[in-house]
Amino acid sequence: MQVQKADVVIVGAGNAALCAALAAKDAGANPVVLETAPQSERGGNTFFVAGSSRWVFNDLDEIQQVMDLTEEELRTVDFGTYTREDYLEDMGRLTQYRCDPDLTETLVDNSRDTLVWMKSKGVKFAPMYKGQSQKIDGRIKFFGGQICMFWGGGPELTAALYNAADTHDVPVHYETTAVSLITKGGAVCGVIAEHDGEAREIQADAVVLACGGFQSNAEMRTRYLGPGYDLAKVRGTQHNNGGGITMALDIGAMPWGHWSGSHAVGWDLNAPPFGDRDVGDGFQKHSYIFSIMVNAKGERFVDEGADFRNFTYAKYGHVVQQQPGMFAWQVFDAKVDDLLRDEYRIRQVTKVTADSLEELAAKLDGVDADGFLKTVQDYNAAVRQDVPFNPVIKDGRGTDGLAVPKSNWANTIDTPPFQAYAVTCGLTFTFGGVRIDADGGVIHRSGNRIPGLYAAGEMIGGLFYFNYPSGSGLVAGAVFGRIAGTNAARHADNRRAGPA
Fold first, then answer.
1. End of a domain among 373, 393, 426?
2. Which domain holds residue 105?
3. What's the rounded Cα separation, in Å, for the pair 149 and 473?
4. 53-105 per-position pLDDT tens digit
5. 227, 287, 466, 399: CA torsion to nearest 10
6. What is the pLDDT of residues 316-350, one digit of tens each?
7. Could you give the CA distance from residue 67 to residue 55 in angstroms, rounded to a whole number?
């Protein structure tokens, strides 16, 4: 790495960072991207995502701004609507109305336009039928407001962003780690980066930090998320160690957001410590709404049917983490086998099957068999048989009289063959980070903006608390990456122009 100066330095090389780089280029700057990982591990957490996206659409014309639909899809699919008010309400409801109002409105109001811009850079989108829609009377109907995914998931999104960076002559320097920020007179004017064990100064008119949260840092996880989180599995990259957050805090950036919170899902018990680039998101286990989940005592511990998967999966990993031994089993019977998502059918899965509940109880490793059988007996007796089962709405088919209710999609566990899947907590990203304004500028502890410093992606705080509506993370990374890159380029241009 021979670069010594750049208009804008982008730290990180995932979705948010590359959107920042492409936006800076659009605004007339010449950005340089620094990536800690080697080229073979590039892309940050983005590479590992399933690719769901959440954005505002009011009619079919607005949908077609993002997705190219076939004539058959236009004729046979009811995509519904997802309004600004819907998005704002989902963000507020799931974060217990703690989400930063300015950042939330910025995310919502820029969601569709940002995806249209990404499309112009070669990113492709496709309808997200699996798990989000159902065929009813010959017509496919979406439910829950989420209709779209990045085509090909994380790997193809990563490839498209890097192709765009190549096309726009944005250099990416691999195995190059920014370790500290250079400041002068309170303004950021570059970074110190390490490559091959050598530290070097890179002067810059502006810096964008977009290098992820601290989910890959066992010490920071334990310090902020709590005891036991040093043992948690990480769904994505091993390189998101909180370095960008630390660099910003070291020069006085204001900590912001839910530092003891994170996006955490049910993840295969025997998945590796960090993401597997071949399996990708396949270790997730998100059909739990049709199961009962039991802990080591054989007891249910959460309302599996409290809401659609989109609105509970990112917090239920924490609930599993708090169970004895930090694991649980998801138990299904044959009645719902056709509803299980594709990740239940991969080869790398921790699964047991049985033709009787007694046989299944003996196979649930680490679980009290008698406790499990008593739980199933009590649960089966409590299921409301007078309410029809409907997997595409919150059907109200719940339980009566249980200490831990199941509110929707309750079916008796009585039809063999039975199957069960062992899960633990899988951390996606952490919610605590630095404070930014709606322009992507990092805020100092004094309340003033730090000149020349911008941030985006998982390392900004204030958007997510306790929970998360699915698809909003990738879109937030793109929205604030684009904003940060654009304003960093403008700051660089103003700085080069000097005083008027």
1. 426
2. 5-214+431-497
3. 12
4. 999 999 999 999 999 999 999 999 999 999 999 999 999 999 999 999 999 99
5. -100
6. 999 999 999 999 999 999 999 999 999 999 999 99
7. 12
